[in-house]
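Hi R.,

Here's the chain you asked about this morning:
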Amino acid sequence: MTYKFEIPPYFTQPILKKKTPKLTAKEIVASASSDTIKLGKKVAITDAIIKRTPKALAEYGYTTYRLNTRNMENGHQYRITILSDTPIIKSTSKLIIDSPNPKWVFNYEYAMAKRGNAFIYRSNGDPPVVKNPSQKPGIDHHVYAAIKYLSKNSKEIMQAVIAEKARIAKEKARLKARQARR
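And here is the predicted structure, written out as tokens:
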């Protein structure tokens, strides 16, 4: 897998302009343009996992989802990170988004960060005076596909993680019991 079109981080630590996100998942999806929705149907999710939540947000109870997306037309791939205030994403969940997609970085990262729904991480932190001068919230097609996927499948992903943790705990207990017998 190649991620040759990703925008690398500009800052070493992501900057969160507001502590709590303002927009819900439903409002974020509603901010997508008709072109974004059309292009979002051509994006496939190749992998979705739950990752460790950064320390700064762990105290607020966020769940971190990491998704790999792939555009089926041109092959562009991105690693999208979505943090949710609820373990299972619903329409009322407050989301924080990080995407290395150039459209997200240069059009929407600043506008969404102003509302607490993104980090200033990959852009330089200046408002997009050319691409989005009104600083209207929005998302690109990869983020749109990721949110739609999570709204349908986050429960199954969470159940798989819980089952895997239970299997690992059971295996550790079995190994501990075996070592105690020796």
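One quick note: The chain has a mean pLDDT of 89.

Cheers,
M.
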